[in-house]
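Researcher: Sequence recovery benchmark, item below. Answer with residues only.
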């Protein structure tokens, strides 16, 4: 069955009644409020272009289809994001932007030719992704870089990110309008190795390889750089020109405090980026081929972390199991009486509980070196309940009979 999910959100201002009426003409079945438009299509399509609806009414849009396409659009006030920086991140069919007289619109897209085996419905994505808008307004450009990185991933065979890079022939592959192996990355943002919750959601939404993200992040300066201290900020503020300071104050008085903050943060970030470690990281940009050659190492490190985490979880479960069995062994008389009562009820569910408790008693006996006592009690249990075929089958599968 076809599935298309459309959701739009108005963040900066609520929709007027006339605008809601106009949207109702676009869809008679959509859920429309003063801040939200959403609908699911199992046949047919939205009657208007999502891009046009974004230009006219909304600040955020999420689209999810069960054949693999996912789209995120964000609308911001014109000038809130550096358009020169944006231009360096554009990749055909993956990340793009355009402008109107008053707004800047960004679009991230994940599109495949094959349907998702286990596709995810659209509900929930909007809440996870909309914080990206505020992050961009604060001068955090990691989401833009991730858009470009999506183009890197989809410019090469889809299975390349799962297999080790082996030869130059693989590196020479490119999709139409995609990136080339010798293309240079955009300015590398700070903190790519420690993404925010919204940026992690974007990685998931775009189906970005975590190994590719980790490979790209190897040269990114830590987001918790000591340069971002109150002392460093105070030092920068002391150097702000008087004309610039008056401009920021005027914006605040005019009720544009948000724009003043955006301009201040951008100016501060650009100064920090141009300085020492941040500037060197931004200037020493890598080619696509160089980034992809780091994927193998990133994959090995990820698998090692996963194995270590799994081993730690198994050890925790083992210790919890031992504590439980030790406690059980301290009152075996009570537990054997409970097993007998369960077996006497002759119900499938109580047979299951009796089997489970017998398994636990067996393991507790092994742990506490009391196997002889367990076997003696178990033989007595079989003498009383051994003819119950349903229970016997359960004990055989649990390998308690032998």
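Model:
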């Amino acid at each position: 069955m076809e599935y298309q999910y459309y959701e739009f959100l108005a963040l900066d201002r609520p929709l007027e009644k006339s605008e809601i009426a106009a949207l109702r003409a676009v869809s008679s079945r959509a859920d429309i409020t003063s801040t939200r438009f959403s609908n699911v299509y199992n046949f047919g399509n939205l009657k208007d272009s999502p891009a046009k609806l974004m230009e006219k009414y909304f600040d955020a849009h999420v689209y999810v289809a069960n054949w693999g396409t996912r789209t995120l659009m964000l609308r911001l006030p014109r000038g809130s994001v550096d358009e020169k920086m944006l231009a360096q991140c554009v990749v055909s069919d993956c990340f793009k932007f355009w402008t109107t007289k008053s707004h800047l619109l960004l679009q991230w897209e994940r599109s495949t030719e094959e349907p998702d085996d286990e596709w995810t419905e659209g509900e929930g994505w909007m809440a996870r992704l909309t914080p990206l808008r505020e992050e961009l307004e604060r001068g955090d450009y990691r989401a833009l870089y991730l858009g470009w990185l999506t183009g890197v991933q989809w410019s090469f065979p889809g299975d390349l990110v799962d297999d080790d890079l082996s030869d130059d022939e693989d590196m020479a592959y490119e999709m139409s309008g995609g990136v080339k192996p010798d293309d240079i990355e955009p300015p590398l943002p700070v903190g790519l190795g420690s993404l925010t919750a919204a940026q992690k959601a974007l990685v998931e939404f775009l189906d970005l390889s975590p190994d590719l993200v980790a490979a790209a992040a190897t040269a990114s300066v830590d987001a918790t750089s000591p340069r971002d201290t109150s002392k460093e900020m105070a030092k920068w503020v002391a150097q702000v020109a008087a004309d610039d300071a008056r401009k920021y104050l005027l914006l605040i008085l005019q009720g544009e405090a948000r724009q003043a903050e955006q301009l201040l943060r951008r100016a501060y970030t650009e100064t920090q980026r141009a300085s020492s470690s941040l500037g060197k990281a931004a200037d020493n940009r890598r080619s696509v081929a160089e980034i992809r050659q780091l994927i193998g190492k990133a994959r090995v490190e990820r698998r090692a972390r996963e194995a270590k985490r799994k081993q730690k979880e198994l050890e925790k479960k083992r210790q919890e199991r031992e504590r439980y069995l030790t406690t059980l062994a301290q009152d075996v008389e009570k537990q054997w009486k409970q097993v007998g009562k369960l077996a006497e009820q002759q119900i499938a569910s109580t047979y299951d509980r009796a089997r489970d408790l017998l398994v636990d008693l067996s393991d507790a006996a092994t742990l506490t070196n009391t196997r002889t006592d367990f076997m003696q009690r178990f033989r007595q249990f079989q003498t009383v309940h051994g003819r119950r075929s349903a229970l016997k089958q359960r004990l055989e599968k649990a390998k308690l009979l032998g």
